[in-house]
Amino acid sequence: AKKRAKKRQKKTQNENNPVMPEKANDKDDKMEKRKKKEGGSKLPIEGDTGSDMETIRKPADFDIASDEGGKDDEIALEKTKKQVDAKKRKKKIKGSDHGRDELENDNCEELDAEIEALLSSLTPAEILFDSSHEKQDNPDESNLSEVPPQASENMPDPRQLIRDVTSKTRARILLNSLIQPAGITAREFYKTYWEKKPLLATAHCKNGDGKDSKEILLKHRQRFSSLLTKSKIKKTIATSALRYGQDLNVTRYTTQSDGTKRRITLDLPPTSTADQTEHPIAEPADVWSNFDSGCSIRLLCPHQQSDDVHTLLSALELEFGCMVGSNAYLTPPSNSQGFAPHYDDIEAFVLQLEGSKRWRVYPPMSMTETLPRESSADYTEKDLEGIEPVIDEILEPGDMLYMPRGWIHQAHTPLGKLGASAEHSLHLTVSAMQNWAWVDLLEILMPEALESVARSETSTTLRDGLPRDFLNYMGLMHDVGGEDLPEGLKQASKSIAEGKPEDDSDIDETEKEELRQIERKRKLQARFKEEAKKRIMRVCKEAISMIDAGCDQIGKRFLSDRLPPAYNISEIVLTNESRTNQAAGRIWPNTLCRLARPGIARLVLEDGKAVLYHCGDNSRVYHGNPLSPMEFEVDDAPALETLLTTVEPRWVVVSDLVHGDIEDKMDIAQALYDEGILAIYQAEKPDKSVQVG
């Protein structure tokens, strides 16, 4: 049979994604372009009983015997009972004033409330990483980890339970963990705080008397410590050749000669040529000299150098469904401040890692500054006179502060307590929802709808010429509201506009003619507006019919903007990152498949082809790699749709994919697996009755 090529590489181009040269594909189009990452585990194959098998979640939809025997069955049964009980107790959440709750696709696993609370007590490192994850610079944390969080005789070890949840549920548990000290769940957070008001999650939020045990306080202070430390920043600056304005800033908020405090930036300026702009490398000695003199250091994208921060952001992208970024701020001790009061265009989660910092947060000054699309210019102290902060708190290690877009804030390190040495402050700001509002979707949708109607093959509605001389009666200068008319004409004009009989006994012929001119102009204006309304409604109707296409466009933008997925161990052993040879990753008719992680790929129809976009090849540098979509024939679309919508804990068998023949089914699945976005599991002996490739 004639073998069809299942993929052709192509590069997309947009404002931020230049077209990059691409090598020609191999004749059999086997997509060997994906680079193998170091440290991958070997994928279990038939007859392999290695330890990596223990980390694989057994496919829930298939009867696969457990190596652990009846013990796993008892645990699974007990877990299922608890989930069923939780569903029975679940109450319907009322929608918000703008209907968000009804639009949320909350497809996390339903967990028992006690189990969810227990998992939320874990630190981000315990949620995101295997127990063997190395915690550098935190020797005390290993002592704490010997005692399971909130473990008791009646409750299991949450560090064992977290291994059995899906990546989507793990992301939800991570958010729960971040806000856990505030005593609320993620659902309560979204309903009450998200985009509405700030939230403090500190060690004393739940126990206002401050009588927490020493162990609990110590665990709280260390819950973010594995993410980033001053010593790691020092190492990064010393070894990574960071550049001013691109990777870091050195800033200070200080009093100027006119007595006003303003932010100054000490970055060395870039040099520009006709072809490019070169940002100078930040010499470590200069950076730390400025730090010692009171300047703050801002790392613009710490996730580029830190695997731990990258993994945190990757999980939160799964939770929030939008691009998530980060900045890190290292501020000297003793009343130092790096930035002026301002508001941001992001939802900000401030994670205090080291030291302490006093935060003052103010509400938006107007409705136009509520959920803004752009960050503000710097405010001065005079701008904030008379405005009381809604939050004025000192964040300690382990504390978290959430601020919606538009909430003004400023922060500085406190003075050292009497007899104690002052500490530097280090915090990580996690950002979300930038350029991710309804207006951003409509900015994509409305121009497309307008262009579509303008190109219509069945109507010339938008191509019809504008009325002759319409500028003689339309526009502000032709307003006939009557406010500037003499009183007699004003009343007569008002009567005509309201359809009342005209009483012209008190006006002369000249005024009558002027009144008739006004009435003619008013009729022309009304007719023009009615015609314009018809055309606007035609465009709106077209826009409504194109909503799915608009969502695909903003979805492609998200895939281009976002970070590459940071797979955990359980995901790695199921994807091609663990493959050591060609045979280990072969797809057979009875191979189980699913998307490696929810949301990392999207299928669209373009130019008569089924085109699959994904973020698997993205760089940690924003738009560092252009999108590299995969192109298929349209009749491949049903099989692709099944593979992209099958996510953990479900699997689909290759032979069950919708397509004409088994060879094509295997080719499609193999293409996605080779690209690194498909997870596979061989539960049974491979069915080698069909051979491809």
Structure description:
This protein has 693 residues and is α+β, with helices and mostly antiparallel strands. Helix content is 31%, strand content 13%. It is built from 19 helices and 19 strands. Strands 1-11-8-13-7-6-2-3 form an eight-stranded antiparallel β-sheet. The protein has a three-stranded antiparallel β-sheet with strand order 10-9-12, with no helix packed on it. A three-stranded antiparallel β-sheet has the order 18-14-19. A hairpin with a 4-residue loop joins strand 4 (271-272) and strand 5. Helix 7 (167-179) packs across helix 12 and helix 13 (438-454) crosses helix 15. The chain is globular and about 95 Å long. It starts with 69 loop residues before the first helix and ends in a 12-residue tail after the last strand.
Helix segment count?
Answer: 19
Helix content: 25-40%
Taking pLDDT < 50 over at least 5 consecutive residues as the criterion, the unreliable ranges are 1-97, 134-147
| Cα-atom radius of gyration | 31 Å
What gross morphology would you assign? globular
Compute the number of strand runs: 19
State the major sheet: 8 strands, antiparallel
Nearest-integer average pLDDT: 81
Distance between the termini: 13 Å
Q: Which strand-content bin applies to the residues?
A: 5-15%
Widest β-sheet, arrangement of strands: 1-11-8-13-7-6-2-3
Based on helices, strands and strand pairing, what is the structural class?
alpha+beta
